[in-house]
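Long-time lurker. I teach an intro course on protein structure, and each term I like to show students one example going from raw sequence to a predicted 3D structure in token notation. This year I'd like something fresh instead of my usual example. Would anyone be willing to generate the tokens for the chain below so I can use it in lecture? Attribution to the forum is fine with me.
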Amino acid sequence: MKSIKNLKNIKDKKILVRVDFNVPIKNKKVLDDFRIKKALPTIKFLQKKGAKVILISHLGKEGTESMKPVALCLKKYIKKNITLLENIRKYPGEEKNDPKFAKELAETGDIYVNEAFSVSHREHASVVGIPKYLPSYAGFQFEEEVKNLSNVVKNSKHPFLFILGGAKFSTKIPLIKKYIKLADYVFVGGAILNDFLKAKGYEIGKSLVDNSDYDISSILKDKKLILPVDVIVKSGNILVNKKIEEVDKNEIILDIGKESIKLVEEYIKKSKLILWNGPLGKYEDGGDVGTKKILKAIANSKAESIIGGGDIVSVISKLKLEKKFSFVSTGGGATLDYLANGTLPGIKALE
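-- Reply from a regular --
Happy to contribute to a lecture. Here you go:
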């Protein structure tokens, strides 16, 4: 990949920068601007060299949301004139990766920069289409993502603890199969834990589960796999800490329990590398304790730590812990895909 560091003579050049400003918004205000701040060094670098910066982003899944709240937030950090295009997913050609649409976008600029690692697992027009028509470069944060995540893939330190949470069991299975071989310990939490507990014959009540038939019998037998010994369940309207064998058929598992937190903390103490993707509980429903306590334990450890996943990044931002980790990835699905495959469509497009 060519870096924007190599760009010269770009005064008055129009530079299309694909950013990921898909940030949480409530009452027309940005709740967490972590991703916006991560793109600022690239934007300011290009502006300092006299370029005309045109930002491309999506917001939400349907393409119906306006970028106006993002533009207002951006004004706090960028004082020079800048163009932020309206939500790119409003146009059907974006997600279809329509060559005609990609060419039309490309014609509005002279150079393309990808500063959206977190959407670079998507074969969309603004990610893989535009680079076919313009000289293309990687932004600073994009480079940092690839550098730090590739180090995990190629040069793992040991003992190596891999923590995996979140939902979407189908997307996590390849990662578990890969890292059960590479890591020394693999701890599973979040909604994907329910699938493991169900496969082991435990009652999971009304908890979220993926009903697809995945064969995880070999993973369940692996001694590297660590599952929680207790969980926080929603029983009626109250939250209760229960051993995993005590969950009732009318309850919902929301988080890992107190003993499980202590268990993970012990593994953190003896690890030299910790890789974590996805929250350990359903924190919008009160299942945020495990994630917060484990984050603080890692922040206080001496281990090299790489944390990723959109939801967990929001928690880190609220706790103001970002500088306590070796690297915080802006990617969710992109981080998972890169760790599993060693590349992404958006990376290949820049090569």
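Some talking points for your students: The radius of gyration is 21 Å. The mean pLDDT is 93.
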